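Example for tutorial group B:
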C-alpha cells in the first residue's frame, strides 16, 4: 500500500529537490516496483559515513550546507502546496545525493496531504527523528517535518545517528524527547549559526518553529556568511 501511496504522490511532485519517479513496474499481480532517477552517491547517511568533512564553517560552506539547503527547498515545495504535504520521515537515510544534481528528498511512503480541517495524530516516522507532539499523539502539522530537519542538521554535523553517544535505551530517549528534556548534540566545531537554526527547528512548541520557506532564506544567509569568512 505504501508504494501505491508513494507513486501517486511522486507523479504529482515535480521539483528539483524531490526524487523523480520515472515509472512503475508491476511484474505480477502481487508486486509493484517504482523506477526512480539514479543518484550516484546513494543516500546522505552513507555519504556522510564515507566522507569525513570538517564540522566547522569550512565544511558547512561546502557540501554540508548545500545538502541542508536542498532538503529545505524540498520541504518548502511540499509544505507550500495546497493542501500541504507532510513527509513524516525526514532523515539522512531518506535523502539521496548526486555529484551533479545535489540532494533530493525520497521515500514518500509515509507522506500525507493535510487539509486545514483535518487533524493528524498517527505516530509515524523513525523514533529518533520524531517531533515531541507526534510521540505523544497530539495533533501535528508540517512543523513536525521542521523538527526532523533540525535533527537531520545534527546528522550533517556529527556524521552519526542522533543520540548515538548516549547509553539510554530507545524507549528512554523517546520519553525524554517527548517531555522536551533531550535533543541531539552537536560537535564543538559546529558553527553557532547552524546550532541556533537547529534549536529553532526543534523547539517544543511547533508554532515557534520556522516554516520551510523561512528555513531556505535563513540557510542561504548563513552560507553567504561562510563564503565571506
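The residue assignment follows.
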Amino acid at each position: 500500500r505504501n508504494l501505491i501511496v508513494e507513486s501517486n504522490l511522486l507523479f504529482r511532485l515535480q521539483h528539483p529537490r524531490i526524487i523523480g519517479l520515472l515509472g512503475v513496474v508491476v511484474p505480477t499481480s502481487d508486486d509493484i516496483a517504482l523506477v526512480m532517477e539514479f543518484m550516484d552517491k546513494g543516500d546522505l547517511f552513507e555519504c556522510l559515513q564515507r566522507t569525513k568533512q570538517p564540522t566547522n564553517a569550512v565544511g558547512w560552506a561546502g557540501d554540508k550546507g548545500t545538502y541542508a539547503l536542498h532538503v529545505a527547498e524540498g520541504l518548502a515545495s511540499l509544505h507550500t502546496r495546497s493542501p500541504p504535504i507532510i513527509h513524516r520521515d525526514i532523515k539522512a537515510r531518506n535523502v539521496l545525493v548526486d555529484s551533479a544534481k545535489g540532494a533530493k528528498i525520497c521515500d514518500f511512503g509515509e507522506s500525507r496531504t493535510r487539509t486545514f480541517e483535518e487533524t493528524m495524530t498517527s505516530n509515524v516516522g523513525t523514533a529518533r527523528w520524531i517531533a515531541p507532539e507526534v510521540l505523544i499523539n497530539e495533533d501535528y502539522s508540517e512543523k513536525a517535518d521542521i523538527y526532523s530537519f533540525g535533527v537531520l542538521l545534527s546528522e550533517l554535523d556529527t556524521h552519526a545517528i542522533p543520540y548515538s553517544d548516549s547509553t539510554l535505551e530507545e524507549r528512554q530517549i523517546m520519553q525524554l524527547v517527548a517531555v522536551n528534556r533531550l535533543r541531539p548534540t552537536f560537535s564543538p566545531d559546529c558553527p553557532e549559526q547552524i546550532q541556533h537554526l537547529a534549536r529553532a527547528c526543534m523547539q517544543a512548541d511547533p508554532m515557534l518553529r520556522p516554516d520551510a520557506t523561512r528555513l531556505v532564506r535563513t540557510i542561504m544567509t548563513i552560507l553567504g556568511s561562510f563564503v565571506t569568512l
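Confidence is low (pLDDT under 50) at residues 115-121. Compare this with the pattern of hydrophobic and polar residues in the output above.
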